[in-house]
Structure formats: C-alpha cells, structure tokens
Amino acid sequence: MQIYLPIAEMSVNVFLILGLGGVVGLLSGIFGVGGGFLMTPILIFIGVPSPVAVATEANQIVASSVSGVLAHWSRGNVDFKMGAVLLLGGLAGSSFGVWLFSVLRDVGQIDLVIRLSYVIFLGIIGGLMFVESLRALTRRRNPAAARRKLHKHTWVHGLPLKMRFRKSKLYISALLPFGVGALVGILAAIMGVGGGFIMVPAMIYLLGMPTFVVVGTSLFQIIFVTANVTFLQAYANQTVDVVLALLLLTGGVIGAQIGARLSGKLRGEQLRILLALIVLAVCTKLGIDLALVPEDIYSMGYSE
Amino acid sequence: MSGRRSLVAFGCLALLLALVGPGRASPLVADLSKHLVAITTAFAGSDVLLFGAVEEPGDIVVVVRGPPRRQVMHRKSRIAGIWVNTATMTFDDVPSFFAVAASRPLEEIASDSVRKRNGMNIEDLVTLPSAKGSENVRDEWRQALIRNKQREGLYQPQLGRVSFSGPRLFRSDVFFPANVPTGNYQVQTYLLRDGALVSAQTTPLIVGKIGLEADLFDFAHEQAAFYGLIAIALALLAGWLAHVAFRRS
Questions:
Q1: Domains of chain A, residue spans
Q2: Strand, helix or coil at A76?
Q3: What is the ipTM of this complex?
C-alpha cells in the first residue's frame, strides 16, 4: 500500500515505514537509546531528502522521549535543575544548528556534513561501546581487576559559576552542562538525533553524574531540544513531514514496547556488543559511500 | 480499465468532431482524458491519455513540458579520500518535466530546424548563457542535468508512442511518476507532413496536490509556525498515549 508524503513529495510503502519504525523502536526499547541515529540514515538510504529526514526524525524523537521521560519521572529519576541548565545550552545550540543547516543547504554541502557527522560520531561511540563491553565481559571472568576511582578532581572543577545540583549530588560549574547541552543541540539540529548517545556518556564521564538520574535527565532535555528543532525546521525550512512522523511513531511505539520486554531476558554486555556492532555497521556503510566513486559525479541540488 | 478509458476517449473525440463539423475543417484536434493530475494520499504516479484526430493523414508529435524551474547542479571531486561537492552551476529556467511521443522516429518526421523551433529536443531546452564557461564545460553540465532528471524519471529517456487507429484517429499515453513536480503543464500536439509543420495545438494540464495532501502542504508553507506547533503537539500527545498504554499493559 503506497502513501504519498506531502512534504517529502514522494510515494512510500506504508508497511515499509511502519516496519522500519518498528525495528528501530525495538532496538531502542532493548538498548534504551532514542534510535534517531539509526532512523535518520535509514530514511536517507530509502530516498527521503536529507533535510526532510532530519527534521521529521526530530519530530518523532519528541514523542519517544515523552513516553520515556514519563516512566523515569514516576520513579523520581530526573534531575530537573541539571536538565534546565542542559536545556538552556540545548536551545542555544539547536537554534544555531538549524541556522547552520539552512546555510549549508544553500551552499550544497548539507549532505556531506550530515554524512560526515554520522561517520565521525557513530565511529567514536560504536568503537568505545565495543571496547568497553568487551572489557566488561573479560572483567566478569576476572573479578580481581581494578575498580575505577569514584570521584576525581580535574581542570573542569576549576571553572567559574559553580552551582549545586542536589539530585545529582554535584557542585560544579554551570558552564559545563551548558556547553554539553549546546554541543548536543547543534548535533540534534544537523543530524536529526536526540543526542542521547553523546549526552549520556558526557553526563557520566565528563559531569560525573550518578547513573540513575542520567537517562531520565537526558530524555527530559531532549524533549525540549527536539521540539525546538521541529519548530525551527518547520518554520524556517518547511521540512517537517507529519505524515511520515506519524507512521514512524506508530511503528516505533509498538517496537519499543516489545523491545523493553525483551531486554529483561537478555544479558547486558552481549546486548551492548550487539548495539556497538549495529552502530559500527551503519557508520561503515556511510563511510564507504563517501569514499566510493559516485555513480554520477554530478548531482541535482536545490530547485525552485 | 484501459478499454473503458479508450471508450471514453473516443466518445469525447466523436463530440469534438461533431463540434468542429465538416464545414470549418480543422486540420488537428486533440484533448486529454483529464486536465488535472490529482496528487492524493494514495498517489503513486498516473497515466494521462492524449487523443485526437487529423483531417488528412500526417505525423503527430506530442511534447509535454512541466513548469520551468531554477535548478542548481553540483559536481563532486575527491578531497582527502572522500567525494565532496566542489563546483556548482545554476540553470535559471529548465523544464521540471519533459516527455515526447511521436508516431515515427523524430528524425524521419521533422527537420532539425522544426524540432529546434518547437522544443522537441530536451537538449535545446536546457541551456546555459555563454558567460557560464566554455562550450565543452556547459555541455557537460547540460548533459549531467538531463541524465539526473532521467534517473529520477522526470525526463523521459525514450520517445513515447503515438498510435493511429485508422488514418485519422490517434492516441498516446503519458506517464507521470509519483515524484512529478506540481504546477501548470503544457501539452503541445504537432501535426507534420513531409517534414514541415502543418498545425499545432496547446492543451493545458495541471498537476496539483488535492485534498489532505494539498491542505497539509499549504498549511506547512503558509502557516509554518503554527504547523510546527501542531507537529510538536501531535508528538507530545502520541508519546503520552504510548506511556499510558505501556503502564496499563
């Protein structure tokens, strides 16, 4: 069954889109990730124009983050103060990102920047995750291995504008979460991701937040940042396709529920290795596409 | 389907012939099975039937042209191992869609100058001012644009068929793919004899989104801010519903 997408201006198979939403939702349910970093490249692979893919995916992430954050909120796992500071950075970063997006589109470099950002970030994150989970597997076999120090003092603790975050049990400079939020905001606007896959490690390793508040707080600020991206992309570029977003959502919600149930029955480290491999596979595919001689070195850009 | 359509077409044709009448003989009459290609939710491309009649036997050429657009083209070259757009060319005015059909191969029907003058070759319609580089360079860009448009199915690479039923009645099918650009199209029908133009007729055709598709598109463009807010509200609602459903089960 074909459906015509009014903004993407193309005809797609309904079941293909529902299925893709479902598979990515399943993965996000199992691994507790947003799935934007998988969905946006897949949409681009099936021929959705990249500006529409990025903007529409931001819209979908609003929905998946809301259902996630409500679950964490009911368990009290959201640090709203930290979330607010991250959010301020995120709003600034994503607004800048949407502007940068239009500029790059006008000079014909947006596709390259999107693909390069994916290759770089998926490569780093996938690689780190792979190494980390391999190490965790060997550590379990060798329980005498050294433990990480709980709290280390580094240069980041010397920054001004210190603030107390009770829930996270931290007393750090507000500049730090603001900066993290801003960086992730730019990526959200350009890559069509929530940015959880960068935000979560940054919160744990850079800010030193306790793990139990990390996911909820990250989701909390992702809602607002992706909502900001959705609004600005719709306003400035008219690239949000609600029909596509609703189809992806429907598949995603169902997939995520099944995934969340499955995740309890699977082992953590092996899951992480699997996710790392998926991330690295997407990264490799995008990287190869950039390096291979294109089918045609000429391509069509903007038309009006 | 096709049978019924031809029946309708020839019905219309009979009417046309009656209107034209034997007294004021027109050398060529042609019309389309529909004047609006409606892009609806289920749109996956559409065929339009062109039909007509000629007073005396001759050759028919049908040219379908989409609304002119500005089109930017990019050329990649390799930088540090990856392919990057390094050159850009803007065509100010090229047809967004182009298809030609004829009753015989074009070269046998029409002289070079007739083809050129009446825009039967896409090569003559995709042009760049001479200020934009040497002849060779411009030709590369033009060929590239045509090739890319053909790959998207917007320029038809092959000559379509105009078939005659008897000496006077002709018909031709034009296919519009799902990614067809919207706007006002021109369908030109030419009657030629011995390589020279005898008569021509222009029939307008509109390709447009209608119903929900049109409403959403117009809404997104005319009230962009409000559209953005609605998109967010829908997402929030969907997320909340998912949470509720998840908690219950």
A1: 2-291
A2: coil
A3: 0.83
